[in-house]
Amino acid sequence: MTRKNIYLDNAATTPMDPKVIETISSEMTNDFGNASSQHAFGRKARQVVETARHELAETINAQDKEIIFTSGGSESNNTAIFGTARARKNIGKKIITTKIEHPSVLNPMKRLAKEGYEIVYLDVDKTGHINLDDLKKELTPDAILVSIMAVNNEVGSIMTLKEIGELVKDSNAYFHVDDVQGFGNIEIDVKEMNIDLLSTSAHKVNGPKFLGFLYEKDGLKVSNLLLGGEQEVKRRPGTENVPGIAGFGVAAHELNEMDKKQLQEKYQKFQKIILDALDQKQIDYEVNGSLEGKVSHHVLNLWLKGVNTYSALTNLDLNGYAVSGGSACTAGSLTPSHVLEAMYGEDSPRIAESIRVSFGRFNTENEIKSFAENLVNMCQRLSK
Amino acid sequence: MVDNSKIRVVVGMSGGVDSSVSALLLKQQGFDVVGVFMKNWDDTDDAGVCTATEDYEDVKKVADEIGIPYYSINFEKDYWERVFQYFLDEYKKGRTPNPDVMCNKEIKFKSFLDFAMDLDADYIAMGHYAATKVDENGVVHMMRPKDGNKDQTYFLSQLSQDQLKKVIFPLANLTKPQVREIAIAAGLATAKKKDSTGICFIGERNFRKFLSEFLPAQSGKMVTPDGKVVGEHAGLMYYTIGQRSGLGLGSTKESTDPWFVVGKDLEKNELIVEQGYDSKLLYATSLDASGVSFFTGQPDHDVDLKCTAKFRYRQPDVGVTMHYHAKDNTVHVEFDEPARAVTPGQAIVFYNGEECLGGATIDRAYQNEKQLQLV
Fold first, then answer.
1. Which tens digits make up the pLDDT trace of A47-99?
2. Is A329 noted as a catalytic residue in this protein?
3. Kindly report the CA angle at B145 between B140 and B148, in degrees rounded to 5?
4. Are residues B140 and B16 in the same domain?
5. How far is CA A179 from CA A149, A158, A187, A197, in A?
6. Chain B: residue nearest A313 by CA?
7. A18-257: which CATH architecture?
8. Beta pairing partners, A145
9. Which domain holds residue B297?
10. Do A333 and B72 touch (CB under 8 A)?
11. Considering only alpha carbons, which residue of chain B is nearest residue A317?
C-alpha cells in the first residue's frame, strides 16, 4: 500500500524544482537582509530581488519596472481589478469579463457589482472560448477594464489574447490577463498582445507558494490595494520575500530556457496515452473542452459517463493518484464547476461526472501509463 | 490475531465522539479504514457560518490522529428529496414524522452505503449504539447494544437484511462513558465534544420558527373533546399528541390541571385539548402501522407474535401482541396495557428479548375498537 503517490493535479500546484529549492535554501542561509536597507546586507538582498525581477520580466517581454511582486495570483487579480475600478471610476463603471474566470476574478467582480459597477460576463462556447463579436459589442466608451484569463484552469482553453488585445487597444478599457494557468505553458508577449495588466503565480511554475507578480504596464493608473511602506516603487508595501523571489527568479529562468512547444507536445502525448487506454477498453467518456486548436494540453478534463466525480476522486486517491474535479469548498465537498456549467449548461450530466487531470514538467510517461490503467479499471468497476 | 488489513471499512464520521471512537477501534483492529464526512444539510447562516464546516474540521483532526485518509461527500440533494420532503409531507398530514429513521434508511444506509461500495468497501460503520449477531444460516440479526440508555435500534428499525449485512457496530459492547474514556485516553480532538441534540437539520433552533419557514401555518380553534372552544392554536403541525407546554390555557372552574393535546381534527383544523396528564383520550389499546420492515426479511404469510415494542425512542418496552398482515405489509398491534400518547407518523419497533425484530410507521390508534382522533 505504501507505494509512491502519483501527482496529476499540476493545475492546482506544482512540485518545486530542486534548483529552486536549492536557491531558496541558500538565500535563507546567506542573505537575510531587508532589500530596503541601505547597508551591505540590504544591497545584497536588493540585488537578488532585482536579478529575479529581470528574469521574470523577460518571460513576458516586459520591462523590469513593470513587475510588482505580490503574494500570488489572487492578490494580483484583486489588485488589477479593484485598483483599476477605483482609479478609473470617473471614466466609467463598466467591466467586462467571462463566465469561466477564477474565483479570484469573479468574486472581486461580484463585490464591484454591489458597489454599483456594471459587470458584463461574456458567454463561452463548448470549447471554452468567447466570441470576439460579443466583446466588441460590449466595448463601449464607459468600459474601463477587460479581464480575461490566458488559459482556463479547468479545461485548458487558450483565449485569443492577441485578437482581444487588438480590440481593447482601440477602446478606453485596460486589458487585464489572469495568466496563472498560461504562465509557463504558453508564450505570452505583453507588448505584442497589448496587455496592460497580467497576473502570475510562482507555485504553478515549480516555484514557492504565496508569491507571484503583477505586470503593470508603465504609466498605467491603478490604485494600491494595500498601504504601507514604499516597497515595489510604492505600489505594494511589505518587506520582500527575498528567498522566495530568488526562487521564483530561478523558476522563471527555467521557463525562459524551455521550449513551450516541446512541452505541449509532451503533454499531448500524455493525453493520448490516457485516451487510448480508455478507448481500448471501450470506456464511455467524452473530453470536456477540446483536444485540438486553441488549448493548452497540460489539462485534460474528462467526462466519465456514469461515474460520479466524488467516487472517482476518492477511489483514485485511495489508489495513490491525485487528480481533481470541481473546486473544493467548505466542509470539503465540491461545488459544481462554474466552468462546465458555462460551457454545457447547468443541467448537463457532465457537471457531476467529470474529473480534471493536469500534467506538469516532472511527470513521466510511466506515471501516466500507471494512472491510465488504474483509471480504466475504476471506470469498468463503477460504471456497471 | 486475524488479518483485517484487506477488509476495507468506510466509516461515516460526523465529527462527534461516537463515530470518532468507532473509527479508532476499527483501525486498532487492523481494518483498512477510510473516513468519510457526510454533508446532508446546508445550514450556512447569514454570517457564513456553517456547523458542518466545524464538524468537518473535527473529522480531519481525528482522522489525522488515528492515521486514516478522510473525504467528504455531499448528500444534500438526496437528503432534501428523500428525507426532508417526507418530513414536510408528514407534517402537512398532521402527523409527527421521525426524520432520523428515514435518514438512516435513505441516506446513511443507502446513499452513503452506495458510495462506500463504490470505494470497494467490505463494510460501513458509524457511531450507532446497536449490535448484530449472525446465525448459523448467515442471517444477520439486530440486537440491543450493551448501553441500553443509548440504544439506537429504534432509529435503525427500517433497515433491510442487505443493509444490515454491510454494517459493523463497533460500539456494540461499550457504554457511552466508556466511549468517552477511550476517546480521552487516545487524545482524540472530539473526546470532550458535546453530543448533538435534536433533529440534525434543526439543531438548537426554534422548531416552530424553522417549520414555519417551510410550511404555511394555519391557525384555528382549540376545542375540548365535547366541542367547547377554549382558545386558538397556531397551526396543527406545531403540536404533538400528549404535549403539554405551549397551549397557553389556564385553569378552569372545574380543574386546575394543565391542558394536554389529545387529538387533531385535520378537516376542521381544530386542536383537541383536555385537562389532565392522564386524559382518557390519550390512552390507546391498539394501533395500526404500515411499511413494516423486519431485519430478517418479510414473511410471506400472516404472523401473530407476543413480543415487546417501543413506539417512542428511549421509552421502556411495553408488552404487545403483533398481528402481521403479509398481504399489505401492515401490522395491527394490541397493547397488554393501555399506552399513552401513541403518535401517528412515529415508528413502532418490535423486540423479542434482546433481539430487535424491525419496525413500522404508526398510522392509527384505537381505544377498545374505537379509532382515536389523532390526525
1. 999 999 999 999 999 999 999 999 999 999 999 999 999 999 999 999 999 99
2. yes
3. 145
4. yes
5. 6, 10, 10, 10
6. B71
7. 3-Layer(aba) Sandwich (3.40)
8. A95, A174
9. 281-371
10. yes
11. B69
